[in-house]
Design goal:
alpha+beta, rod-shaped, 8 strands
Length: 183
């Protein structure tokens, strides 16, 4: 009975140490600012959307999509790097209304950030929170399917870890050599 209690205590202590270690670290995949800002109401359409990020971006694995209220893409061209930490997406906005920027940024270290922001282009009287008109196209979802090989390896890792824990907890006691007592 004592051995399982020690094993559980060791796992809890390890969890607390790891949680304390990770809690103090800044998010390596953070968006520090955007231009235009999220929720901004602009009187003139921008020619680009710029994401400022916490780390260097892997341009080949990152993408940005800008769409108007009707769901029509207003992105013009491919995203480019202004600096290793700033991603620029050119846009061609010809109408007023709410714009949605959806992004999936992969950092050079492998971390990822997925998100969206909205801004409005108005003639001075518009609102960033205007409802979408009836029949508007829903925003495209941005999802990546589960890689089958990764899923199988993850399941296999779980089975191996569970097997090791069971074997450690159910290991039979090996008797030591007999103790000779001299009288």
């Amino acid at each position: 009975m004592r051995r399982p209690v020690l094993a559980v205590g060791a796992m809890l202590a390890s969890g607390v140490v790891l949680a304390a270690f990770w809690a103090g670290r800044p998010d390596p995949a953070a968006v520090t600012s955007t231009s235009p800002a999220d929720g901004a109401v602009l009187t003139q359409a921008p020619t680009e959307v710029v994401l400022s990020l916490h780390g260097a971006v892997d341009l080949g694995r990152s993408h940005v999509s800008v769409r108007d209220t009707a769901g029509t893409a207003v992105s013009s061209g491919q995203p480019s790097l202004v600096t290793p930490e700033r991603l620029r997406q050119p846009v061609s906005i010809t109408a007023t209304g709410e714009m949605t920027v959806a992004y999936h940024v992969t950092f050079a270290g492998g971390a990822e950030r997925v998100g969206q922001l909205r801004f409005s282009v108005a003639s001075g009287a518009g609102s960033a929170a205007a409802p979408a008109p009836a029949g508007a196209v829903a925003e495209p979802s941005h999802e990546h399917g589960v890689d089958p090989l990764s899923a199988v390896l993850l399941a296999l890792d779980g089975v191996v870890a569970l097997t090791v824990v069971v074997l450690l907890l159910r290991r039979p006691r090996v008797p030591g050599p007999p103790v000779r007592r001299s009288f």
